[in-house]
Specification:
about 425 residues, alpha/beta, Rossmann fold, seven-stranded mixed beta sheet, LolB, VWA domain-containing protein
Length: about 425
C-alpha cells in the first residue's frame, strides 16, 4: 500500500522530519510500520519517492523495514504475530494450547493498554475459535474482563465444569462491579430526582422546591408592565418523593446471541432500579421461552447466570407475559430491549403493544443497550412500532439514566435530540 507524507524529498530520501537524513523520527516511523506489518515485511519494502508505488508501506523508507527488533519491541511483535500473522497478513499463530494462550494473555496485558487488550482478546476468540479454552479456569484468571468477555462466558454457562463456573462468576463479577461503579450513582441520581419532581404540589416548602417555569406560566395574568415583573400569587412546586411505589418498571430483554452485551447492561440497570423503593422493577428475559428473573435482582451476577444466551426469539410470547405483570397501566414503564427479529406471531406482538399504549403504559423499545454503535435490527417491525407511536432506537448505557428519568416524569422525551449524544432513533438524522 502507498504511504506518502512530509519529510520525504523527490528522490524518496527520508530526512527524519528534522532536515537530517534518517534521524530518530525516521527510525521511529520504520519501527511502527514494522510492528504494524509484521515480520514478513522486514527487508522487503523499499522507498520509491512520494509513496506512489505498489507494495510500498512507509513511503520512502530507504532500505525497507528493518527486520531486527529487540527487547520489548520483539516481545510486543511476538504477541501480535501469535494472533495476526498468517499467509499474507497478520493472522493466526496462537494454536489451541491453554498454557500458551494464558502466557499470551499475560504478555498483551503487559505491553498494551486495557482497551487494546479487550479488542485482542475478542479477536482471539473470534478468529482462532478459542471459545472452548474459556472453559479452563487457568485461562480465565489471565483475561482482562470486559462486557464482551462476560457475554461469551454467559453463553458457555451450561457447558462449564463447576470449577470453571466459579472462576467465570468471579470474572463476570468484576465486570459487573466496574459497570455499577460507572453507572449506578448516575442512574440513582437521575431517577430519584425525577421521582421527586414528578410529585407536584401547590405549597412548596422550600425555594428549591419551586418549579419556576410552571409558576411563571401560571401567573402570567399577574404581570405588572410598569415593574416588568410577574406577581406569583400561586406557586407550583415539586413535592418530595413518597415512600410508596410511584412507578412500575418492566424490563423485557431479548437474550438471543446478538443481544449479549445488552443483556449484561440491562441486568446491571435492573439491579440498580430495583434498589429504588419508589419503583417496582421487574426483569424478564426471553428467547423462545420466557424467564422471570425479578427475584434475583438483588444480585446482578446471579441474574446474568440465570440467562441463557442464544437460541430463537418469540417477542410476542414475552410481551404477553409482561402484560400479565401490569396492574397499573398509567403508572407503568415497559422497556422492550430487542433487535425485533420476531420468530413468533408478528401481528399479535404489534396488537399487544398497541393495547399497552392504549391503556396508558409508556412503551419504549431499545434496539440495543450497549456501546457497540448502530445495531442490526428488523426495520419493518421498528417502523410498525413507530406507526403506533412507540419510539424504537439504540441507546448507550450512559444515556439510559436520562431516558428513564424522562419516562418517570412522563415527559415526551425527544429521542431525536437524545440521538445526538446517546440513543440513535429509527429514521433519525445522521
Amino acid at each position: 500500500m502507498g504511504h506518502g507524507g512530509t519529510g520525504h524529498d523527490g528522490a524518496g530520501r527520508h530526512d527524519g522530519g528534522d532536515g537530517t537524513p534518517g534521524g530518530a523520527a525516521g527510525d521511529e516511523r520504520s519501527r511502527r510500520w514494522r510492528l504494524v506489518l509484521g515480520g514478513a515485511a522486514a527487508g522487503t519494502v523499499t522507498g520509491t519517492g512520494a509513496g506512489t508505488g505498489t507494495g510500498q508501506a512507509g513511503g520512502g523508507l530507504d532500505g525497507g523495514l528493518d527486520g531486527g527488533l529487540d527487547g520489548a519491541d520483539a516481545r510486543m511483535d511476538a504477541a501480535l504475530a501469535a494472533l495476526y500473522d498468517g499467509p499474507g497478513e497478520r493472522g493466526a499463530g496462537l494454536g489451541t494450547s491453554a498454557p500458551r494462550v494464558a502466557r499470551w494473555l499475560g504478555d498483551i496485558r503487559e505491553y498494551f493498554p486495557s482497551t487494546v487488550v479487550q479488542v485482542m482478546q475478542r479477536d482471539a476468540v473470534e478468529r482462532l475459535d478459542l471459545t472452548r479454552l474459556l472453559l479452563e479456569p487457568e485461562m480465565l484468571e489471565a483475561v482482562e474482563p470486559d462486557v464482551h468477555l462476560a457475554a461469551a462466558l454467559l453463553s458457555l454457562n451450561r457447558l462449564m465444569p463447576e470449577r470453571a463456573r466459579r472462576t467465570a462468576r468471579e470474572v463476570v463479577g468484576r465486570v459487573v462491579a466496574e459497570l455499577e461503579a460507572r453507572l449506578s450513582r448516575r442512574t440513582l441520581t437521575a431517577v430519584t430526582g425525577a421521582l421527586d419532581r414528578s410529585a407536584r404540589t401547590r405549597r412548596p416548602r422550600r425555594a428549591a422546591d419551586v418549579d419556576w417555569n410552571r409558576t411563571i406560566m401560571a401567573n402570567l395574568k399577574n404581570y405588572l408592565p410598569e415593574r416588568n415583573t410577574v406577581v406569583p400569587a400561586t406557586l407550583a412546586g415539586f413535592g418530595r418523593r413518597r415512600q410508596a411505589v410511584q412507578r412500575d418498571v418492566v424490563l423485557c430483554v431479548d437474550q438471543s446471541g446478538s443481544m449479549a452485551a445488552s443483556v449484561v447492561y440491562a441486568s446491571v440497570f435492573g439491579a440498580v432500579l430495583a434498589s429504588v423503593r419508589s419503583l417496582r422493577t421487574s426483569l424478564v428475559v426471553f428467547d423462545t421461552s420466557v424467564a422471570d428473573l425479578t427475584g434475583r435482582l438483588d444480585d446482578p451476577v446471579d441474574v446474568l447466570f440465570g440467562t441463557q444466551l442464544g437460541g430463537g426469539t418469540d417477542i410476542n410470547r414475552a410481551v404477553a407475559y409482561c402484560q400479565g405483570l401490569i396492574t397499573r397501566p398509567a403508572d407503568t414503564i415497559f422497556v422492550l430491549i430487542s433487535d425485533l427479529y420476531e420468530g413468533g406471531v408478528r401481528e399479535e406482538m404489534l396488537r399487544r403493544v398497541a393495547e399497552m399504549t392504549a391503556s396508558g403504559v409508556q412503551v419504549i423499545v431499545l434496539l440495543a443497550l450497549s456501546d457497540e454503535g448502530t445495531p442490526q435490527y428488523d426495520g419493518d417491525n421498528a417502523a410498525a412500532l413507530a406507526a403506533l407511536g412507540v419510539p424504537a432506537f439504540a441507546c448507550t448505557p450512559d444515556a439510559f439514566p436520562d431516558l428513564m428519568a424522562a419516562a418517570v416524569e412522563r415527559r415526551s422525551y425527544d429521542h431525536y435530540r437524545m440521538a445526538a449524544s446517546g440513543p440513535r432513533s429509527v429514521g433519525s438524522p445522521t
